[in-house]
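Protein modeling request. Please complete all fields; requests missing the sequence field cannot be processed.
Requester role: graduate student
Desired output: 3D structure, token encoding
Chains: 1
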Amino acid sequence: MQALLVFLSIAALSLLASSRALDPGRFPALARLAASGFLFLIVGVLLGPSVAGVLSARNLEGMRPVLALGLGTAGVILGLNLEPRLLRLLPRPVYTAALAHAGTAFFFVAPPLVAPLLFTSGLSLKAAVGAAALLGAAASLSSGHFAVLAFRAGRMDRARGLGIALLTMLDDAVGLGVLALALVVGAASNVGEGLGLVCLAVLLGILCGALLAFLTHALKDPAELTTVTLGGVALVGGAAAYLRVSALLAGVACGATLALVGGRTVERVARALGRVERPVFLVLVFLVGCGIHARDWAAWALVPGFVGLRFLGKVLGGKLAQRVLGGALELPPRLGYALIAQGGLALCLVAEYGMLVPGGLSQRVLDVVVVGAVLNELLAGPAFRQVLGPGPGRATPSSPEVEVAT
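Delivered output (406 residues):
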């Protein structure tokens, strides 16, 4: 019954988000949250055990396989975006710039928050450092959806919009790398076992990706291709949940394997997954929102520091990235303000860590990142207007416009 309530709530919210009731001119902040999917995150928080209690902790425990499937699907989609031909063509300064802006935000957030986490949790220094590293990984991630929507609407030069989107795609590697290291340290009793679990997740993803490429190679019927694709993606998440390894890392390895194979079949696989990307993302963020502890006041106390330090790190990291790039990539002058939106991958990182390394500290990390992601999404709109300053790359819109970010 509770699972049915989850999907009915998401369906109702989807209708609300796509209707004219959320007029961007009257409710710009609410419309942005609906377009980004974070409105579903907030509703998940309200219906979760710590607020209204419509879904109990036992219900959420029963929904863990659904969460694993969502993480696996997100990983596959992320891996499919790693186009090998494009990555080989990129000059080295582009990678250095992505590492610069992501690394700056990481180091602005992670080291300063070690002491507060250690003080509020009472756990070991090792646990506090791991939690701070996850917060830094979440802070390092950015979403390029504001830039993509801006150049689609003619408010930003196409080259600049794609340049921002490219940098935000590359910084995903920083977050995934920190997640892998955190799982190596915390997912097992010793580092050797943790490394084995991470390697098992990657191997599982590679094998599932090779199997999916083989099964879809000769398929011509679109419906059959979609069915096999969804079955293969479900296999990744389901197998990872059964083996208690990272569904997200397994999904990324699966998608990267498919991208490496290439060809028209893989393009059709990507299009098939594109049809379910939005619903899967909405279910995923809803379940993540249900899992937070809204009455953890220590987590609330950490949120201003997380948001403020991340904002400062992104602004300064954007300046550093522009200095490193030189003229290798066309970017707007105030790049850092275009990197404030955090995106859904940050939620995936902390949700995955919470599933595999359960405990009070991982729960606190989840609470901080969820609230911080919503606040960063609200800050991203005004911040992005600093990027769209008067200039030749901007066409002034006649009316405020909010589009759906995917």
